Amino acid sequence: MTPAAASAPDASQRVGFLGPAGTFTEQALLTQPDLCRGELVPLPSIPDVLAAAGDGRVDLGFVAIENAIEGTVNVTQDTLAFEADLLIQREVVIPVELCLLGVAGAPLDGVTRVISFPHATAQCRGFLARSLPAAATDATNSTADAARLVADTGDPSCAAIAPARAAEVYGLDVLAASIADHPENATRFVVVAPHGIPAPTGHDKTSIVVYQRADAPGSLLGILQEFAARNINLSKLESRPTKTGLGDYCFLIDLDGHVDDEVVADVLRTLKSKQGDVKFLGSYPAAGEHGPEVRREADASGQAAAAWLDALRAEIRR
To answer: Could you say which of 17, 117, 189, 251 is catalytic?
Structure first.
């Protein structure tokens, strides 16, 4: 089964995404032919997308969750972890190319204000320091929203950090291309829905939140040992405040495998029984080409260990 087939919407389904037209989110969404068969619904912010998916105004939400340079998109991760009851259906990873966009004919050296989504601005700190050291920076809800505002104002002293597609959508000039500080940049997006777990594909990822039973020495080690003992690879481990008090943290974990895999089910069962709580965020097709070999090697190792133990137990005198 392909990742697209795992949760393919039909033409009657509504897919909410961070708008307006021209965002990286829209660009990533357009790479998914099955999602594009539905009605695409631009929404003004990531919380709006997740809220709409949760209350049924859209059937699926499509949002950024992680950037290779700036890390987790906290508003997405925190909403999924602490507020929404949504399940991740798949992930989509696309490379990022950021540009500086301005009104037609605007000179680069005349820019005194730069606006964009904060994650995008942070990825261009070096360019801004070198080329526009005196420019002020302001936040917008999305990169495309920044481009739209520049187009609406027509102010040549104001520029937006956004993808090149936004220049086409809003009739702007590309004042500088490929301005991100790190060329090997990519953003990870997720599709979310209020219910349903895609069938396993053999190349899957599971996301969970683990709450500690107590903040004590070795508590994180105890969690990690459960995965190590089962040869389960973790592709992400991050601590986040639980928002209940200073010093109270939980762990956001992405692990290789699907809840339908017995080894994954076993570690979730153990964590649920030993820790304060576990919130399941989804098992879904993983992006990229790597992963099956690691899972096969882990499975083979586990099977060999099980066979060894079975052989020992067969020697027990009954």
So the answer is: 189
